[in-house]
Design goal:
- Strands 2-1-5-4-3 form a five-stranded antiparallel beta sheet, sandwiched between helices.
- The chain contains seven helices and five strands.
- The protein folds into two domains: 130 residues, 2-Layer Sandwich (Beta-Lactamase), CATH 3.30.450.20; 70 residues, no CATH class.
- With 222 residues, it is α+β, with helices and mostly antiparallel strands.
- Pfam families: HTH_22, PAS_6.
- InterPro entries: DauR-like (IPR039446), DauR-like_HTH (IPR039445), YheO (IPR013559).
Length: 222
């Protein structure tokens, strides 16, 4: 609710708004058993300015700050610790909740908000599992993200993807074949890795100078 942030400095407003999108991402990843809350520190009596899945705690926008939030802010004044890593609570209905609360720090180094994640551990297992499932069919060999331990591995895997993609509509004998592969890698940010140019140059039997020439052309056209 950006209009609730008008009292903040523009830089602090940007910081707070970045947590709005983060809250959507976390709630989307973990599902309905996860409540995500953002508190403004402008008025403790109605501090909640963003809440997702608030049905777990029966809160909504305009609800007040919690005792844990106040305690964490008090502790921050003493030791500058801005995160309560993990703690457990019981809701009024008896449900067990596992939580973490992080103090949002503004551009002047002062607290401007609270970012809280609450997991309802009493959610039935079938509902918890279903929240992690993708209801669209996923191809057996589908990979949307590569978790790698070395940059070279990422470069080589993405190069293979590029070849597979380009060869669907361009033959190896085409003059555009190598340039298309380089452009694919450029578009996917691979050349941000220092080792990328020499590795790609070797695989395409080109010089590093030729790769850089293409990259300059791509950058000039964007």
């Amino acid at each position: 609710m950006p209009d609730k942030l008008e009292y903040l400095h523009d830089l602090d407003k940007e910081i707070m708004l970045s947590y709005f999108s983060l809250s959507e991402a976390i709630a989307g990843l973990l599902g309905e058993f996860c409540e995500v809350v953002i508190h403004s520190l402008n008025a403790y009596e109605k501090s909640v300015i963003k809440i997702i899945n608030g049905h777990h705690t029966n809160r909504k926008i305009g609800s007040p700050i919690t005792d844990k939030g106040l305690q964490l802010l008090k502790c921050y004044q003493k030791d500058q610790s801005n995160t309560e890593l993990v703690y457990f609570s019981r809701l009024n209905n008896g449900n067990l909740v596992k939580s973490t609360t992080h103090i949002i720090i503004g551009h002047e180094g002062k607290p401007i908000g609270l970012f809280c994640i609450n997991l309802n551990l009493s959610t039935p297992l079938d509902k918890t599992v279903s929240s992690f499932m993708n209801y669209d069919p996923i191809p057996p060999h589908y990979k949307s993200e590569n978790f790698i331990t070395h940059p070279k591995e990422l470069i080589e895997e993405t190069f293979l993807k590029a070849v597979t993609h380009i060869e669907q509509h361009t033959t190896k004998h085409s003059k555009l074949y190598k340039k298309s592969i380089i452009f694919y890698l450029f578009e996917n940010g691979i050349f941000e890795l220092k080792e990328a140019v020499p590795i790609v140059a070797e695989k395409l039997s080109l010089t590093s100078h030729a790769i850089y020439k293409h990259l300059r052309e791509f950058k000039n056209n964007t």
